[in-house]
Amino acid sequence: MSIPDRRRWFKSSYSAQQDACVEAAHFAGGAVGVRDSKDPVGPALTFGPQQWDSFLVGLRAGTFDI
Question: Which of 37, 46, 50, 53 is 20 to 30 A away from residue 30, measured at CA?
Fold first, then answer.
């Protein structure tokens, strides 16, 4: 699986102009990459489509609220 180029990575519109954010990118086949916006050449985590969908369901349900 190849890493998308810089133009394909994006931050959430909720992050506004904050520096401490994560960026995401969509890969072929529905996978999603996530990385630290402060380290664009550093490592990225990759999630399969089902993993990502499960994460989003949990996020919307408040599962990860502290």
Answer: 37
